[in-house]
Design brief:
single chain; mainly alpha; 2 domains; 4 helices; 0% strand; elongated
Length: 71
Protein backbone atom coordinates (compact mmCIF):
# COMPACT_ATOMS: atom_id res chain seq x y z
CA UNK A 1 0.00 0.00 0.00
CA UNK A 2 2.10 2.93 1.24
CA UNK A 3 4.69 3.44 3.97
CA UNK A 4 3.44 2.74 7.49
CA UNK A 5 4.58 6.10 8.85
CA UNK A 6 1.91 7.80 6.74
CA UNK A 7 -0.76 5.96 8.73
CA UNK A 8 0.63 7.51 11.91
CA UNK A 9 0.37 11.03 10.52
CA UNK A 10 -2.63 10.94 8.16
CA UNK A 11 -5.85 8.99 7.96
CA UNK A 12 -6.74 7.10 4.82
CA UNK A 13 -9.45 9.62 3.93
CA UNK A 14 -7.00 12.54 4.29
CA UNK A 15 -4.52 10.84 1.96
CA UNK A 16 -7.28 10.04 -0.52
CA UNK A 17 -8.50 13.65 -0.49
CA UNK A 18 -4.95 14.89 -1.06
CA UNK A 19 -4.28 12.58 -4.00
CA UNK A 20 -7.65 13.35 -5.60
CA UNK A 21 -6.96 17.06 -5.18
CA UNK A 22 -3.56 16.69 -6.87
CA UNK A 23 -5.10 14.67 -9.68
CA UNK A 24 -7.76 17.33 -10.28
CA UNK A 25 -5.07 20.01 -10.42
CA UNK A 26 -3.10 18.00 -12.98
CA UNK A 27 -6.05 17.50 -15.30
CA UNK A 28 -7.66 20.89 -14.86
CA UNK A 29 -7.84 22.70 -18.21
CA UNK A 30 -5.73 25.82 -18.43
CA UNK A 31 -7.61 29.09 -18.31
CA UNK A 32 -6.97 31.65 -21.02
CA UNK A 33 -4.87 34.62 -19.99
CA UNK A 34 -6.80 37.59 -18.64
CA UNK A 35 -6.77 40.89 -20.53
CA UNK A 36 -4.59 42.47 -17.84
CA UNK A 37 -2.06 39.64 -18.03
CA UNK A 38 -1.89 39.95 -21.84
CA UNK A 39 -1.38 43.74 -21.55
CA UNK A 40 1.38 43.19 -18.99
CA UNK A 41 3.14 40.74 -21.30
CA UNK A 42 3.02 43.25 -24.19
CA UNK A 43 4.24 46.06 -21.93
CA UNK A 44 7.12 43.95 -20.67
CA UNK A 45 8.11 43.12 -24.25
CA UNK A 46 8.18 46.85 -25.11
CA UNK A 47 10.26 47.64 -22.03
CA UNK A 48 12.74 44.87 -22.84
CA UNK A 49 13.05 46.10 -26.44
CA UNK A 50 13.69 49.70 -25.34
CA UNK A 51 16.20 48.51 -22.74
CA UNK A 52 18.03 46.42 -25.33
CA UNK A 53 18.07 49.23 -27.92
CA UNK A 54 19.50 51.69 -25.40
CA UNK A 55 22.13 49.19 -24.24
CA UNK A 56 20.71 49.46 -20.72
CA UNK A 57 21.47 53.14 -20.13
CA UNK A 58 17.94 54.60 -20.09
CA UNK A 59 16.53 55.25 -16.62
CA UNK A 60 13.00 54.75 -15.39
CA UNK A 61 11.67 58.27 -16.19
CA UNK A 62 12.89 58.13 -19.79
CA UNK A 63 11.73 54.53 -20.12
CA UNK A 64 8.24 55.59 -19.04
CA UNK A 65 8.22 58.42 -21.59
CA UNK A 66 9.27 56.08 -24.37
CA UNK A 67 6.64 53.49 -23.45
CA UNK A 68 3.85 56.09 -23.19
CA UNK A 69 4.89 57.75 -26.47
CA UNK A 70 4.95 54.36 -28.16
CA UNK A 71 8.59 54.55 -28.98
Amino acid sequence: MWPAFLNQVFTFSQLLQYFLHRLRLQWQPKRPLSATKRENICLLAKIKAIHEDSLGVIGAPRMREDVVDGG
